[in-house]
Automatic annotation (TrEMBL):
<keyword id="KW-0238">DNA-binding</keyword>
<dbReference type="InterPro" id="IPR018060">
    <property type="entry name" value="HTH_AraC"/>
</dbReference>
<dbReference type="InterPro" id="IPR050204">
    <property type="entry name" value="AraC_XylS_family_regulators"/>
</dbReference>
<keyword id="KW-0805">Transcription regulation</keyword>
<dbReference type="Pfam" id="PF12833">
    <property type="entry name" value="HTH_18"/>
</dbReference>
<feature type="domain" description="HTH araC/xylS-type">
    <location>
        <begin position="211"/>
        <end position="311"/>
    </location>
</feature>
<keyword id="KW-0804">Transcription</keyword>
<protein>
    <submittedName>
        <fullName>Helix-turn-helix domain-containing protein</fullName>
    </submittedName>
</protein>
Length: 328
């Protein structure tokens, strides 16, 4: 099966089973949104190529676990830590993860069912199974992570050469056990490292600051509250807010708000009805400088707002409509 090519980031993000998440593009990117998927019964492999830098928030479904490996050159940070070649990010059921990429990223990922994971975990002596239910960054060695990466890529190569290679239960189950064991051995090694106590714990955990901050930003986009009240709503200083958002999203809360607003405008344009206008839609989100907004929109989504509206209404954009300026 060839890799699936998606027209935009939403179709790409929605194609991944077992996880509820939101993706936001944050910058320019001309590459494809591509995903290669290999289903192995209780375990799914993914090889993805992002078409642009993104923000991401999401959590696996109940009974689903995941491992995310960032490939070289991706500049990916999840839960405030760079995902390097000596580790991977572990996703536990129903635990939200935040992260971002500074450039269009490529990755490998594994989606495990609880049954497959725990069956293999029972074979590994002294493994702390409770640690599997915590979302965290697992750091071991380049060799151990490279072995996992090589196994995944080899599985895709085998499937490409022989599409029926994993149809029989014997080879499929043997591979699933080998890969799952390699991942769990990384857990075991990471779990044996002594933790370093940190002084000066902030009044609110970083995750909670960001959760409250994102919730306030969403409410402000709906017109329920003012964005400027975010420190009061969160219960943290502006400095703590900035630090938490920078750690998890690589940007300040105000920048995050502007990106969310652009995506909210895009959603509203795509669901427009007869009689809706760009001016009217933008005014819902407190945007009055339509020329500047149109330029930002075109850089982000490769489409002018008037073209987006015309698509939704099944009409051609009229000459001189706001946001129809030619791209440079």
């Amino acid at each position: 099966m060839p890799a699936l090519i998606f027209p935009d980031f939403e179709a790409y993000s929605n194609s991944v089973d077992g996880i509820d998440g939101e993706m936001r593009v944050t910058g320019h990117g001309d590459g494809p949104w591509s995903l290669n998927v290999l289903e192995l019964g209780g375990l799914t492999l993914l090889h993805g190529i992002d078409g642009a830098p993104v923000l991401y928030r999401g959590a696996p479904h109940e009974g689903r676990f995941g491992a995310y490996l960032s490939l070289p050159g991706s500049e990916t940070e999840l839960d405030g830590q760079r995902v390097g070649d000596d580790g991977f990010t572990w996703l536990a059921p129903r635990v939200e993860l935040q992260g971002f990429t500074r450039v269009p990223a490529t990755f490998l990922a594994i989606d495990f069912t609880e049954r497959v994971l725990l069956e293999q975990a029972s074979q590994i002596e002294a493994l702390d199974v409770t640690g599997l239910y915590r979302t965290r960054n697992i750091v071991t060695t380049t060799a151990m992570v490279g072995h996992i990466s090589a196994l995944i890529q080899r599985a895709f190569e085998v499937r490409e050469a022989r599409p029926d290679a994993f149809v029989d239960a014997g080879p499929r189950l043997a591979f699933v056990a080998q890969l799952t064991s390699a991942v769990l051995q990384c857990h075991q090694r990471a779990g044996s490292e002594p933790s370093i106590a940190k002084r000066g714990r902030p009044p609110l955990p970083r995750r909670e600051i960001v959760r409250r901050g994102v919730e306030h930003i969403q409410r402000s986009l709906r017109g329920e509250v003012a964005f400027s009240d975010i420190p009061f709503a969160v219960g943290a200083s502006q400095r703590s807010l900035n630090r938490a958002f920078d750690d998890l999203f690589g940007m300040a809360p105000h920048h995050f708000y502007l990106i969310e607003r652009l995506h909210a405008i895009r959603s509203a344009l795509r669901s427009a009805r007869p009689g809706d206008t760009i001016t009217g839609i933008c005014s819902r989100f407190g945007v009055w400088d339509l020329g500047r907004m149109a330029a930002q929109y075109a850089r982000m989504f490769h489409l002018q707002p008037a073209q987006e509206l015309a698509r939704a209404l099944g009409a051609k954009p009229t000459a001189g409509a706001a946001g129809t300026g030619r791209r440079r």
